[in-house]
Amino acid sequence: MSAPASARAAFLARRHVVGRAPAFLPRLLIGLVCAGYGVGAAVGWGSARLALFMGDFGLSAAALVAAVSCFLFARSADNRFRPAWLLFSLSSLMAAAGNAVWGWYECVREVEVPSPSLADLFFLCFAPPAIVGLLVLAKRPVTRAGWVCLVLDSWLIGGSLLTLSWSLALAHTAHLADVEGVSVARAALSLAYPLLDIVLVSMVLALHFRRSSVNRAAVNTAIAALALTVLCDALFTSPLLRQTYRSGQLLDAGWFAGSLLLAYAPWGVARDEDDADRLASRTTSRPISGSLAALTPYLAAAVCTLGILYNVIEGRRVDRVVVFTGCTVVLALVVRQGIMLVDNIALTQELAQKENHFRSLVQGSSDVIMIAAPTGILRYVSPAAAGVYGREADDLVGAELSSIIHPDDLGRVVHEVRKFLAAPPGEEPTTRIECRFRSGTGEWLNVESTVNRHQGGLILNSRDVTERVRLQAQLQHNAEHDPLTDLPNRALFTDRVRRALGGRRAGDAGTAVLFIDLDGFKAANDRFGHQAGDELLIQAARRLQESVRAGDTAARLGGDEFAALIVGDGGHDQSAREYQVHEIADRLRLTLSQPYRIGAGEVRVTASIGVAFAEPGITPNDLMRNADLAMYRAKAGGKDRVELYAPQMQAEVVRRSELAARLRTALRDGEFALLHQPVVHLASGTVAAVAAQARWRSAQGILFTPAEFLRVAEDSDRTAELGRWLLEEAVEQAADRSRAGHQVSVAVRLSARRLIDKGMPFGSVEALLTRYGLPSGALMIEVADSDPRVSFDELEQRLVALRRLGVRIALDGFGSGYAAINALRRLPIDVLKLDRGLVEGVVESARLHKITSGLLRIACDLGMQSVADGVDVPEQVLALRAMGCTHGQGMAFSGPLDEYRLRRALVRGEFPVPGSPAVQPVLAGGSVPLLTGSHAETPVPPT
Length: 943
Description:
Elements: H1 3-18, H2 20-42, H3 48-76, H4 82-108, H5 118-124, H6 127-137, H7 144-179, H8 184-210, H9 216-237, H10 239-242, H11 251-264, H12 271-281, H13 285-313, H14 320-364, E1 368-372, E2 378-381, H15 385-388, H16 393-396, H17 407-422, E3 430-438, E4 444-454, E5 457-464, H18 466-480, H19 490-501, E6 512-519, H20 521-528, H21 530-547, E7 553-558, E8 561-566, H22 574-592, E9 596-598, E10 601-603, E11 606-613, H23 620-636, E12 642-644, H24 647-669, E13 672-681, E14 687-697, E15 703-704, H25 706-713, H26 717-739, E16 745-751, H27 752-755, H28 762-772, E17 779-784, H29 792-804, E18 808-814, H30 820-826, E19 831-834, H31 836-840, H32 846-861, E20 865-869, H33 874-883, E21 887-889, H34 899-908
Parallel strand pairs: 11-12, 14-16, 16-17, 17-18, 18-19, 19-20, 20-21
Antiparallel strand pairs: 1-2, 1-5, 3-4, 4-5, 6-8, 6-11, 7-8, 9-10, 13-14, 13-21, 14-15
Helix pairs in contact: 1-12, 2-11, 3-4, 3-11, 4-5, 4-6, 6-8, 7-8, 7-13, 7-14, 8-9, 9-11, 13-14, 20-21, 21-22
Keywords: Membrane, Transmembrane, Transmembrane helix
Domain EAL: 656-910
Protein name: EAL domain-containing protein
């Protein structure tokens, strides 16, 4: 029995124990009723009339109860045995009718029951439905030979019983009927009862060996009920008892109990209990019942022989009925044995074919099949060993199994085998063992074996899984290592940090994690191509691997980020340890900053390194986070340096996170305000344009400039949302000013990356201009060109489309961006806005003076207007005007103004300009595109 089957049988057995109490009550009730009826019949019921009534109508009532019970069960049942219970109901109904007629004569009419009578007709009709019902319950043969054997077995049993019964009683009954001149009907009736009982007994015995396994307990109870009825019929028809029988005697108790048992059979046994019995009997009762079924023909022949021998011993002439019946039984036995012989020959041939088939499978299988004796000696090895192990099967036979197992695996294999053999076979029929076997060449092969029990020993079905093991190891290596550099990846590095912080090294403050970022790698990758970038990363990984100690771990976390785990040495001098790790990190920085030979040239990058030391109770993620924060601090501090982690770094991150969280709700809550800074004509002091600038007044009353909140919002989804708000608010207020008579253009600063972002499509700008009715030329977009990832092709297409709408384009921060010349060459620029860094030193530095003068000359030669950002003092105004700069923006004129103060300034129309005005070209349309100031904003006047 399999483990699941045994578990289910145990579960059902437990259910049987729990459900035994409810099922015990009806059984007890039936037992008490039958016992009461038996006691009453034994003592004569107290009166002759009551004995007649209970012997006739009592039996009729019991049979009627059985008929109704079987009928109701047949109606509720939904299986192939439903007709059987209907037939049992009909059979019981015939018995009830026969007893009722019998009681009519004896109790009602008080006359002797005639023979034959209507009661005999009903009693004779009892056996045929029961016989057919038993045939329905029997397991149906699947072949013609099976049907023939079923018929022959039935006749063998019935013929043998007929021979024995005829010899013992029936011949004497027939002889008396002939001598006494009894009528033919009465003589036939005398013989019909025993003959039908013989047929019924034959079916009961045949069904006992061929009954179905479905609802077996109910079927067994029904068979027992019919067997008890047949036994009482046999006693009733015997000449010794027939002459003295009267209704109400003890024999009636057997018929009464048989009827109640039949009524109880379909309902009294739970199906779950029956299923548990069936599962339990599969391993115990089947061999016994199979043996009895095989002995049935011989037992029948023995009974028939006993019948004939009885006549010979008694000195009687052998009756023709006995001779005829005996001959037919012998003939049936011969035929049945012939069928069995043919069937055995067919089975033998089939067995030989299957044996050849399995021999071919074993010999032709690519798996090696070995049989080991209980001592461990190999008794059989399949020919596949030559191809799998490189050793002939005959060389392995007789060898010890332990001799071909790797010594390092032998102890584990012996332990698993002993554990397997100690377990019950039903719970653990097989086991799987993987170890290394010695091949014919001396190599060790990874072998997977399925082990089964065999006569105290083992059967091993083994296959070579060396390639699979190698592939699994390779896959494991690939999952834990970077495919480009073959260094440990983030997952393996995190696991090793976890190990370093745990175990015997837990609490070692000397353990440190280094995060390394290659400064300038992205620029080199864009300049020389991805293949050169990959080669640079490979060389950097090799340098890092060679620079760390043997017990340390170097890893690539992704992109140009690397990491190193420096394991502590258990020392207690923390300052010395920090100095040592800092020295290691600085050596790594110098090593990684050496020129890289890529192709025919050299590439230079630097390294920024962050160092974090372990603390008691720190988690791997926190330690790696600290190193990452230190690395970013090193990059922010000028790059190419080593930075140690300090707790204030985390506090800064928390502050920025809180600021970013507040920023996310600022737009929704309307906390942003729009200010405008005038752009002044340097020659006349008139206001030519205004530059829109966003300010955030938080709920705590803090006023943040763009230098603060844009740094938090950079590269987030809120940056795009803020840009859309700034553009729409600036266009709306500019349209209001235009309708109020202030014809001045407005400049809005947008990054190049946001301009080509799909989150702000081209149609949105056109929709804004149409919605608010802003005239052509009144809007200028200041392009902040500082992102090398921006595609110039996409940016050029977008700016050309905006120019068609009448939007003017300014290049912000001119003189600081690396791609400024390329932007001048490709982009449709109307205005150049000088970077604040050039304007701040234009008076003091002769070098900056010459650079700024040259840039303004380029703008003039290209026919572009120029705007100087950050003009804060009169000397800058004089110097820029002398160089040819047309417009300026800064505190020399005005800071950012709210809408009320801006309109007052526009009404005034001009600002005082230092020095005498020089003749300068006037901007077309009297307006200039507006560019937002740099992040270093001037203070905001109170509103």
